[in-house]
Amino acid sequence: LAMAMSCECWLGSGPVHVPSREKPPLLLEEVILASVLRENCSKVVKILRVLAPLTKYRYVKRIKPVVPQLVQGSQASNTEDGMMLEVVVCTIQRREGGGWLSQEDRRNTKGEGEGLWSKVPPSLKAELAPLVKALRVGHVPALAPEDPDQWEDWNQVWPVSYKIPPGKVAKKSATIEVGEDERRKMAAHLGLARDLAHRTHNKGCRNAAVIVNPETNEVVAHGVDETSSSSWGGGEDRTPHPLRHAAMVAVEKVAEGIRAWAAKRKRDSELPQDEPYLCTGSDCYLWREPCAMCAMALVHSRVRRIVFCVPDGERGALGGSFRLHALESLNHHYEVFRWPLDRRVVE
After folding, report:
1. Percent of the chain scored above 70 by pLDDT?
2. Which H/E stretch holds residue 221?
3. 332, 309 contact by CB (below 8 A)
4. What average pLDDT does range 13-22 have in this prediction?
5. pTM more than 0.85
6. Do the Cβ atoms of 148 and 160 come closer than 8 Å?
7. 219, pLDDT greater than 90
8. Main-chain phi, psi angles of 100, to 5 degrees
């Protein structure tokens, strides 16, 4: 805790989640909207569910209260306006999952009011015509919202839902909040990474990595950049190598510990037989953003989370130059956080 408190003076306001990709912008899809009396709404929706399912737009709510001045081509009275609802019929462009079940005549794609009936699938027109007061062109979000903020903003266009299904994780762009206790732990381990990097800075060290068991909050291993110096103090002599980045050194030390554990287990049959795979479930704290090689090594090591302070806009693989953790083809994904330095420290 004392270390964490000392860290707060050089760290910024808090850790920032680095999602695997940026949130998508608001894109709009043109749709045909039908103005329907409340008493007929359930009938219309039942027809649309069968003949014009919005399977690609499940997040779009099919119904919303009508805005009276937007109803065109209708003889509805003000009293009727207050009892009207708007219902999404289908997309203007024929799209799979957009309310279109078969090839339809797509001529005359512009216009309002009665002219829009020519853009409705014939199978729908016969069913809907007796129940619909008017048609107009409207817009719905073309993509599902990926966090509560987008949900709130996009609802201003058309009502949409935002729900993370049970057992599923949030979208890749959704931010993850960090609690106060977790912040203190993060700050302490980042402080150790900073001290290690600065302690060996005059020996050519650029980075340091600390691997932590989040269940016990214990440091499992740590390493510093060994690419340009052969002496690291403490009686530890290593030959410099261009691949011995801080994260690579730290993972190697974890592997050495596992090998030692395996040898000890052979001598003592009472020890647990389960052998962990490298850094499975561990957190890795780095002073600087890792490069592609180190970020990929941490993927293969199965770390749970990576936290770093200093971004690298030229070679950083976790948001600085690109986002390696956005690759869908990876067989493991971790969460990434960056804790910016205090502005006064940067200056």
Report:
1. 78
2. strand 218-224
3. no
4. 83
5. no
6. no
7. yes
8. -110, 125
